[in-house]
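Hi L.,

You mentioned the student needs an example of a multi-chain input paired with its predicted structure. This one should do, with 665 residues in total across all chains.
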Amino acid sequence: MLDTLTQPKRDVVPSVFQEQYIKAFNWMLLARTVEEKLASLWRAGKIAGGVYLGKGQEAVSAAIGTRLKSGDIFGPLIRDQAGRLAFGESLIDIFRVHFGSRTGLSRGRDGNVHRGKPREGCHAMISHLGSLISVVAGALMARRFKGDNSAIGATTIGDGGTSTGAFHEAINMAAVEKLPLVVIVVNNQYAYSTPNSRQFACNNLVDRAIGYGVEGYTMDGTDLGDCLEVVAHATDRARSGHGPQMVVGSCLRLSGHGEHDDAFYVDKSLFQTTLGRDCLRVAESYLRERKWADEALLETWRKTAKQHVEEAVARAQREPLADPSDETWCPYATPRIAEALLVR
Amino acid sequence: MTITYLEAIREAQEKALRDDPRVYIYGQDVATFGGSFKATKNLAKEFPGRILDAPISEDAMVGSAIGAAIEGMRPIVEMQFADFSTVALNQIVNQAATLYWRTQVCCPITIRLPSGGNPGSGPFHSQNLESLYAHFPGLVVMTPATVEDAYTMLREAVDIDDPVIFCEHKYLYNRLKADALPESGLPCDKARVARSGRDLTIVAYSAMVHEALAAAEQLRKEDIEVEIVDLRCVKPLDLDTVLASVARTARLLCVGESWPWGGVNSEVIASVVTHGFHLLDAPPQRINSKDTPVPFHVNLWGAHKPSSQLIAAAARQLYKW
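Structure written out for the whole complex:
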């Protein structure tokens, strides 16, 4: 559902839409498969620290991941496994970081969702919510300085993250600079255990868009088709010089905050509403309904995803873990500074 | 021709902008207005599009600089006052300082902090935050005391690949003058012996170097010869130069304008005691500002921070110990 601020284009060729839908669905499926494996490894004590899942949010995340192009900038948050994969994350990197492998992106220095390849446009989030938005905005400022006006940036944030000062500062700044930034707000109803009613008092989070002077839309986060359409519109608007875009997708977090959390506090009646639908099941029904996939094809896709995930896990589990003896213990990049500090 | 400490900061930025297309300046009122202290005066005219006024959003200013640095830029962020940098504390200490450690992507940003007190500035326009930032791994913290260092160290800050907190002292802005700017200076990880003397070592940095020098002049009349080590940069901290001086004098007094608890003075003394206990003939002493917020009225403010008289008195006692 597009908001009234701008009119939708609705000019997607049906065959193109089908192709996009199937592609995005497969990223959703792969993300779900990855996360089921992560949860199982966590329960088996194979992963230290936490495991955080994006169950129920794959449609929103896959939509943004598939709409970004190579050369764009992405700032994924904790429930963006689908978007990360669609933007090019390799399966092995996911498991290496979760295990704390020596060969992993952060070599055991940070884990789980705190991973990325910033130089390749995929930023590595810190835990402080809202703080990644201005980083993505700054990356876009750099592109503008360098004369690259083709790239856009996108980042996601939860309902709870919209309450931070960092969120406000960053969106206001991006609006002042008219940056091609797409901010996807995933309202999954709970920030850890805190419901919307204790988080904000506006009618809908998209109401904030007009206050910032940015274009805002809402979408059904459980409906991949709606997500693809709205996100496509927002990314196109950003790409064509219309400044920051805010998209609010509504859904329900279908897991705990992390795997340590049984989410007893979630209002069970929400599962009976549209919000509580599992976007993956909704997309499967749609695929069957449109005859884009039958059960046999879906099963093939599931098996393929599982096979790829299990291969990545098997490989990552054989690799050496972080080792204090080959850690540099130096957070400085400048050799002279590093040396001066290590002498001590 | 004379040039002030403030002009040196402006010149260093001009040179950086001229030499390196990756450099830009982002901060409140830095463009047309030239900055609240005029440290970016006329730069917007000279470098159109590269000096950008920011909204009052310190968090977003630093966050965006980090994003730009990841993309290869060399941003300089001007905080209007050092005191306001704590609004951006999260971006500085959690995002910028950890980036290289987490991702092996460096974060070459320079954050300029107009620091220290001026008469009448009060609790929120007078702070010295070098100890706070030095606490966090991943940050370089520079505290230049001279016009020459303000110039060469700011250029170095822009050049190095790590995030730099550049603490420039407001009290020195227009009071300190030099004849000319040097082409190059000591690297930031080297301290400097600002005055040689045999009887005791005073370790100081930023504006306190000048209070220490004034104290040393008073003490010279009493035949006490003070050696002064100007740290220049509090992180990394050049312990070699400090220890070499203590080896000559056997007495150590540390002077800093920031608060006492867990600060630069504490770190210097702890390091000297750990590595040079055998060199000492007396217990090391320290003088900081009083452990209260910085007061507004000049009478209180003057008594809040270390003065040359206070330093001289402490030095006399230490000399006699």
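You could point out the following to them. The beta strands of chain A are 73-75, 153-158, 181-187, 190-191, 194-195, 215-220, 245-250. Chain A has a mean pLDDT of 95.

Best wishes,
N.
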